Amino acid sequence: MQKGRKEFMEAARWSAFFALDSLKKSGMKEMYEKDADAWRFGTSEAETEEKIRKVLEHARTTCPFYRNIREGAVLQDFPVVNKETIRSHYDDFLSPDFAKAKGTRQQSTSGSTGTPITIYQDLYKANHDQADGIFLGALAGYYIGQKMAFVRVWVHNIVKSRLELLAENFIMMDGSHLDDVSIADMLETIRRKHVKCIIGYSSALTEFCRYLESNEPDMSGFEVSSIIPISESMLPEVRKKLSEMFDCPVRSWYSDEECGIMGVQEKDSERYYINSESYHYEILKPDSDEAAEEGEVGRIVITDLNNYAMPLIRYDTGDLAKAEKVEKDGRYKFYLTELYGRRGDMLYDTQGRIMTPMVISLNLWDVKGIRQYQFIQTGEKEYELHLNADPEAVDLSMITGRLQPYFGTDAVLKAEFVDEIPVLSSGKRKYTLNTYRK
């Protein structure tokens, strides 16, 4: 009876949300349905071209940064920008009327890769962002109204009020300390509060996986029906184990604070489906603004098709990926087939070729006694591996013997034990770092 009542209340929250949206005439139900159609049939090439044309013309005529762009210019005539560009010319990126309009909100980046920046989003963009998130959440198995636990570091500007937590059926879980006692307490809350969806940094959810694997607690009584890792890539092995432990899908979101939730991992694959109704993607070469070849690792460069308060046009996210575009009958779907993460975290072999971070994680995952690791490239051929691990259980020479061949016979790899891998102010942990090649 109690379970049936909770499910009824969750369904009622879903219906009430869209009923209220209809009264407010925000258009989110129509946006949601448009996203669903694009997922089924693909995004219209013609409609995308028109969206691009409109946002380019708007930026050219209202934002000082683009005042010298000629009339009729196409997307490739606009410069590629990044956080530093925006930070250096901040006011020039604002479209004055939209930035000051009612309903405009401000989204700040976490600052994990430098000083945070704040992006203005007009009301239409904010509503579209929410509709996109609801749809991509549903693809991952989470439906608004379900009890959800969010594991992250809750800094002052994102902490929710009690009223917001009640309205959203939401539990904040502090991911700043992930020792066994803290994880056990969180898992007990997830069980006792009948949580249906767990969202959290991939590194935090990986710690959950390690705890469950080491302690083998009784998993009966959990009602988790979806797990959504965010912010960092999750190892396929961790994803598989979490899915088996909780008997539910584990599908990562691709998102950032500047734009919103942009994509979701597919059910039976590591690739990400990208919401091309709201974003136009380019994959550019790592060291130039030329388009990357098909199947080549490149920079993710985004044009937000909905934000008119502070247009993000050809915005370099700092991430690297391989991509695939599938076209049919004037429609297309866009996928990130491999997501490499931040460019500044990329590793290179001794010949200067980009290495996937999976090389490290796949070779360390089966080693018992490792709690955390960080692999750092410190020179052209110099590397360090820091391990928070049990020295009695972990053989450093065996690990270096595994990893060195990937980087080259002339690679110099040092490994050492440490007490802790440092956490960034955002609460994220970098598992790979390049202090030599920025």
Question: Could you characterize what this model shows?
Answer:
Strands 1, 8, 9, 10, 11, 12, 13 and 14 form an eight-stranded antiparallel β-sheet that branches. Strands 5-4-6-7 form a four-stranded parallel β-sheet. It has a four-stranded mixed β-sheet with strand order 19-18-17-20, with helices on one face. The chain folds into two domains: 2-341, 3-Layer(aba) Sandwich (Rossmann fold), CATH 3.40.50; 346-434, ANL, C-terminal domain (GMP Synthetase, Chain A, domain 3, 2-Layer Sandwich), CATH 3.30.300. The chain is globular and about 65 Å long. Strand 13 (315-328) and strand 14 form a beta hairpin. The chain is α/β, with parallel strands linked by helices and 438 residues long. It contains twelve helices and 20 strands.
Per-chain topology:
Layout: H1 2-24, H2 28-41, E1 43-44, H3 45-62, H4 83-88, H5 96-99, E2 105-108, E3 118-121, H6 123-140, E4 148-152, H7 162-168, E5 170-174, H8 180-192, E6 197-201, H9 202-215, E7 226-230, H10 236-246, E8 253-256, E9 260-265, E10 272-274, E11 279-284, E12 298-304, E13 315-328, E14 331-342, E15 347-348, E16 354-355, H11 358-364, E17 370-377, E18 382-389, H12 396-407, E19 412-417, E20 432-434
Parallel strand pairs: 4-5, 4-6, 6-7, 17-20, 18-19
Antiparallel strand pairs: 1-14, 2-3, 8-9, 9-10, 10-14, 11-12, 12-13, 13-14, 15-16, 17-18
Helix pairs in contact: 2-6, 9-10, 11-12
